[in-house]
Amino acid sequence: MSDTKNLQMLLQCPMPKLDFDVITLGHGSGGILTNKLLDSGVFNLLSNDILDERHDGAFIEMNGKMAFSTDSFLISPIFFPGGNIGELAVNGTVNDLAMCGAIPKYLSLSFIIEEGLKVSEFWEILVSIKYACEKAGVQVVTGDTKVVEKGKGDKIFINTTGIGTIHTKANIRSKNIKTGDKIILSGNIASHGMAVMSVREGLEFDSEIKSDTTNLNYTIISLLEKFGNHIHLLTDPTRGGVATVLKETAQSTNLGIDIFQRNIPIEEQVANACELLGLDPLYVANEGLFISFIDASIADEFLKMLKKDNNGIHAKIIGSVVEEHPKQVILESAIGGKRVVSMLPGEQLPRIC
């Protein structure tokens, strides 16, 4: 069964009948209303043996070296083509763990809800969280819910913290990067940021631009199984986009990076939307992509394997690590010119993750 069909089935889950339509400050009091809200949604929908303990924390068993990551999600609008803030929150933390070479296991889930949020919207977010957790193979085991006054939030903010075990073949460190390493981008850039912006700006195109939000952990695990420590670094270009991630890597390694515009994959309508809004797609956020720095000897085989994965169909080798121009990223344009790629100096796209 396809992921789309799975989500559609979950969205058809009947919302429990409640005696309130919107969330009020009372739902964050810790009393009867809080329990009604959590019992009718979070605990029932996300039920598992650990969460069902309803303790102040979670009792979990882990073996071996672990990875630990946390992230907060504030996005406007909270629903966008291809996903919503709930799915985004799960995928974001799952992918951060995957970039460490970890197998994600458990998540905490915390909500800060602005009073007035419709219960139906909260339910849809919860359903998407359940869908994303099942797809990624993780469990929500603990969390928290707070409600703030109208005007002191923006519908809903979500924090997720994740724990996973490091894959036995993973050795993901920027210090492992060396001259000659190839840089592979897993797919089309800028789709998430432009999906959000198209809704905000009321832009219409021949076909809808959709966010690329998805979990990458199974893709990464397969690559680690095959290539192990030939994979030197994995990173996901979320806020700040591809340009910022590459610049950070060049600075931290004291090496240079060459990339080629003609090799950077992007959908035509996304490129058109960026041009229309005066945005450089290299700086636009992504939520379902990763960049890998790998030993040149495995580059072709790595790319071939990745392109067989649903998360890597459009993958390409976009550049390499060089000794020249240390700490700098140089882009060769489609017409042969060259320019220095800097870090994003300010906020290009507000509230996209």
From TrEMBL:
Cross-referenced InterPro entries, in alphabetical order? HypE, PurM-like_C_dom, PurM-like_C_sf, PurM-like_N, PurM-like_N_sf
Under the heading Pfam families, the entry gives: AIRS (PF00586), AIRS_C (PF02769)
Domain named PurM-like C-terminal: residues: 178-329
Q: Where is the PurM-like N-terminal domain?
A: 56-166
**What is the superkingdom listed in this entry's lineage?**
Bacteria
Question: Which SUPFAM superfamilies is this protein grouped with?
Answer: PurM C-terminal domain-like, PurM N-terminal domain-like
Family membership, please give it: Belongs to the HypE family.
Q: What is this protein called?
A: Hydrogenase expression/formation protein HypE
Q: Which organism is it from?
A: Aquimarina celericrescens
